[in-house]
Amino acid sequence: MAIATNLGFPRIGGKRELKWLLEKYWSGKIGAEALLEGAAAVREQNWQWQAEAGITQIPVGDFSLYDHVLDWAIRVGGVPAAYQNGKLVSHLDRYFAMARGTQKGADLPAMEMTKWFNTNYHYIVPEWSADQAFHLDAAPFLEEITAAQAVSPDARPVVLGPVSLLLLGKLKGASESPLVLLDRLLPVYQELLAKLNEAGCAWVQWDEPVLAWDLDEATRTALKHSLAHLSDHFGNLKLVLTSYFESLRENLPLAFELPVAAVHLDLVAEPGQLEEALQHVRAEQSLSLGLVDGRNVWRTDLNRAVAFAETAAKAVGSERVLIGPSCSLLHSPVDLEAETAIDAEVKSWLAFSRQKLAEIATIVRAVNEGRDAVANALHQNAEAIHTRRTSRRTHNPVVRDRAAAVLPEHRRRGTEYGTRQSSQKKRLKLPLLPTTTIGSFPQTSQVRQARSQFRKGELTDAEYQRYLEQETETCIRRQEALGLDVLVHGEFERNDMVEYFGEQLEGFVVSKAGWVQSYGSRCVKPPILFGDVQRTEPMTVPMAKYAQSLTDRPVKGMLTGPVTILCWSFVRDDQPRRETCEQIALAIRDETTDLEAAGIGVIQIDEPALREGLPLRKGDQPDYLAWAVGAFRLASSGVRDETQIHTHMCYCEFNEILPSIACLDADVISIETSRSQMELLDGFGEFDYPNEIGPGVYDIHSPRVPSTQEMVQLLTKGIDVIPVERLWVNPDCGLKTRAWPEVEASLKAMVEAASEVRTQL
Ligand code: GLN
Ligand code: ZN
Fold this sequence. Notes:
By secondary structure, the protein is α/β, with parallel strands linked by helices. The protein is built from 27 helices and 22 strands.
C-alpha cells in the first residue's frame, strides 16, 4: 500500500494567526504563555487538517516560531557566544534576540538572514565558531512529537541533516568549510536518533537540501560519512532522504547509495528523474514521489501524477512508494476556500496547501484502490486541466503574435551609452553627484487606512484619488525643500511593487489571503500570474504626469521590471518562465514609452529580484541570465536617447552577476551598499562598470539618522572607485517602511553631504 505523506505545512496559520501572536508578543501585549499556547493551537490545527485529509505521515518539527534553521542551530547547541548573555533571561528572549536583535537588557544585532535556496523564504544563517561545542537541546521538539502522535500515530519528525545544517551556516573567523565541524556534530545527531527511537517513531524525514546544489567532493564525502556513521544508531527508524527545488541529477546515484530507507524526488522540478531513480533504487529502498507542487498554486494534473505513481508502484511494489508534495508546503498559501473574489474559472485551476493535501490523498487512493475508486475526482480534475490548457485567457493570440514578432533591435537603445549620456545631460541639466531617492516615501498609517477605506467602499474613487494626489504633492514639496535633484512621486498608491502591477495587468489575479511566510512574522502575498499578460491601459502615467506637473525638477516614472514581477508572483507552469517574462516585458515597454510620451524624462525600472531568479545549478545560470537581461532590455529600450533609464537592485551578491548587470545597459543603476561601507562598489570599479551608478549612502533598514560626515566619507570612497561624472547620491532602497521625521533628517544630511563633496572637487 502506497503511503500519503507531507514534507511540511505553512506555519503562519490560515488567518496568519502566528503573525499576529508574534507581533503582540514582541510589543508586550501578550506574554510568553499566550504566545506558546497560540502557536501550539496553530500546530495542532495543521496536524488535524492533514490527518483529516488522509495524510498518514504528517510532519512534525516543520513548525517554527520564527525559522526552522534557527531552531536546528539551537537544537544542536549552536547559540553564538554573544547570545549566551545573562541578560537574556528566558529561552524566548534568546531565541528572538538571535532572530531579530534586541535592545532590551542586552544590545544585540539580529543574526544574518538569507534566502532559502531559490525561494523567497529567508532563514537565519547559523554562526559556527572554530571551537564550537555541540549538545542536544531537543526537549520541546520531543514534546511536539508526542503531541503529533496523539493526532496521528505515524507522525514523521522532520530533521535538518547535519551536512546541510553546517553548510547553511558560516564558520566565523576561519576560511575553512563548516564541514570541519562534522565529526564533532555527529554525536548530537546520534543522541537525537536514540530519542526518536524511544519516542517510537517509524519514519524520519532527513532533509539534506544541499543535494539540490552542485556538490564538491568534500560535501559528497560528508554526506556518505555522516549517514554511514549514524546508520549504526538508526534502530527501528527508517530515513527518507529529502531534497527539493531541483532534480538530483548527478547526485542521484549518491543519494540512493546512502544507507537510507527511501529517497525523495522532486518530480515537479524534473519528472524525468523517476526513470533514472528506478534504475538506482536498491531492493530494500522505497521511493518518495514529490508529485504535487509544494511551491506554486496550480492544481496538479492528477491523471498524469497517478500514472507516475503507478509506474513506480509497478516497478518496486506499492508498499515501497511514498507520495507527497515536491517540497514543504511552507511556500504555498493555506486555503483556497478563503478566496471568494477570484473568478470561478481561474479558481478551478488553483490548489493551495489544504487542496494539495486532498490531491495527495487522491493519488494514493488511485494507486491503492484503483482509479475507479476516485473516478469522480479524476474526472473533475481532468476538466479543470483541460479548460486551463485551452482557455483564451491562457492563450491570447494577440499577445502571442506580438511576442513572436520581437526583433533584436527591440532590445537595443537607439545609440550606445556615451551618446545617450550627452543627450541626457543636455536635457536634465543636473549637477555633478545628483541626489535622488529610490521611489517610495513613508507609507504612514493614514496612507494604509485610506487604502483600506477605499477597498471597503468607504471612500469613493474620486475621494481616494484626491487623497493620493495630496500626499504626492506634499511629498514633492518636501523633496524640493530638501533640495533633491531628481524627485519621485512617492508610491502612495501602491500597496506592493508587484501586486500593484498584478492588479492592473491582464493575466493576473490577486488573492485576498494567499499569504506565504517570507521571514519571521513577515508574509508576502504574490499575485497569481495565470495567463497571457497584457496591458489594457496605462498603469502609472496619470500619477507620474500629475507629479511632474507640480515641479520643474525631473520626477522619475517608477516601474517594476519584468524579472521582478515574474520572480515575486506565482507564475504559470504551463510554459517556460522566459516566455512569461517576455510578455511582462512587452507590457512594461508600453508603459515606458507612454511615460516618455507624457513628458517623463527619467524612468526607473526596478529589478531587485534579478539575482534571486538565478538557478541553483551553475550550468543553468547563463541561460537564465541571458533571457532575464533580454527581458529587461526589451522593457526599457523603446525610449529615445534623451530619456534616462534607471534601475535599482537591493543587496545581493552583485559580483557574480556583474557582467549581466552591465548588459542591462540602464543609464543609471542604484544599489544597496551602505552596510558594506561601499565595499560592494569595488566590484563595479574593478569590472569597469560603464554606466552611471548610485551606491546607497545610508541604510534605510534602521531608523538611525546618518551624519553628513559619514556620508561624505562614503562618497569620497565612491569617487575613488567610480569617476565622479558617473556617480549618483541616494539611499540604499525605498523609504516606505520609515517615518517622515527620520526620512527628512537623513535626506537633509545626504543632500548636505553631496554639496560638501561637490565643493571639494
Ligand atoms: N521603488 C521601490 C521602492 O522605493 C523599490 C523597492 C525595492 O527595491 N525592493 O520602494
Ligand atoms: Zn531596494
